[in-house]
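Researcher: I'd like a candidate sequence for this fold, 320 residues long. If you have to choose between options at a position, lean toward the conservative one.
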């Protein structure tokens, strides 16, 4: 089993190289000029020619790709023409913020989905189940940006409990606890908006799995033997009903990192999602390619994590 997992892990490398070739070529064929932000009105033609020569944009795209791969292996991901700084420094400064947002949203979504899904499945048909299903249907139908705007209006402007945008620069003299509290305070609304939209699917999957598992023969046998109801749910029903949820955990990680673009844009959150939008607008090719590689790597790792979790949860499953 672990040999197959290790083989799958090393197979990520050629997949990532193929993906990097595709996104690099597509980025070069995008309309526009990434040097527009460097050319100042009134600049003489010789200075413009020097900028274009340094950017080696006249070389074929495959030559630039090979040069970029060689530089990447040395830790040099290129220069952002818009921000005029190394790409690794620019992305590294924002990637941590996106990880904070994705982690907080992921944990919060499972804290919402698991107890509600268990309750709705165990007491299906009750008033509480009907309320959960009604709210879940609303969460399914509303796009994440609508949920975010409602939370901003309610908790940001009406109740004034949380900040509605940005992430402030914290002074170095601030304590670790104060710094962590400040970060979580600014993460509350973006993470909650993300979690409310993402938890709807897991609630429905968990509820359906529990309702189906309650009717299985092994559950009826356990009850006929006098096994306590709490143990029946804990050892038999919930373990099997949670398979669809646990098997999608890796994909949830990928989804939270990739879908953070919308949340970061609404809340002006300084993460890689907002950087990706601004780089597309300015045709900053070197930043676009690196960010797409990060999203692609997250998707590949998320797929592997889901397979590993499914194998651990159900030893009957084998991956190839």
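Model: Candidate sequence:
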């Amino acid at each position: 089993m672990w040999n197959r997992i290790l083989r799958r892990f090393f197979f990520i490398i050629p997949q990532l190289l193929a993906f990097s070739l595709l996104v690099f070529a597509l980025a070069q064929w995008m309309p526009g000029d990434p040097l527009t932000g460097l050319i100042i009105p009134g600049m003489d033609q010789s200075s413009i020619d020097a900028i274009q020569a340094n950017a080696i944009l006249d070389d074929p795209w495959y030559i630039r790709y090979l040069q970029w791969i060689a530089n990447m292996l040395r830790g040099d991901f290129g220069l952002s023409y818009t921000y005029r700084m190394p790409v690794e420094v620019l992305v590294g400064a924002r990637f941590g913020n996106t990880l904070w947002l994705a982690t907080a949203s992921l944990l919060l979504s499972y804290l919402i989905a698991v107890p509600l899904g268990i309750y709705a499945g165990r007491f299906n048909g009750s008033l509480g189940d009907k309320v959960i299903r009604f709210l879940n249907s609303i969460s399914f139908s509303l796009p994440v940006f609508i949920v975010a705007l409602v939370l901003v209006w309610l908790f940001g402007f009406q109740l004034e409990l949380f900040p509605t945008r940005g992430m402030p620069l914290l002074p170095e003299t601030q304590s670790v606890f104060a710094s962590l509290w400040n970060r979580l305070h600014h993460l509350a609304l973006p993470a909650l908006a993300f979690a409310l939209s993402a938890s709807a699917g897991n609630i429905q999957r968990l509820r359906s799995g529990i309702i189906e598992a309650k009717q299985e023969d092994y559950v009826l046998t356990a009850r006929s033997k006098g096994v306590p109801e709490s143990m029946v749910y804990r050892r038999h029903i919930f373990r099997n009903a949670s398979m669809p949820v646990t098997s999608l955990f890796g994909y949830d990680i990928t989804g939270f990192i990739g879908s953070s673009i919308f949340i970061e844009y609404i809340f002006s959150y300084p993460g890689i999602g907002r950087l990706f939008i601004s780089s597309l607008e300015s045709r900053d090719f070197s930043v676009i390619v690196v960010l797409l590689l990060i999203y692609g790597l997250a998707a590949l790792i998320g797929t592997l994590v889901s397979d590993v979790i499914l194998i651990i949860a159900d030893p009957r499953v084998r991956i190839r």
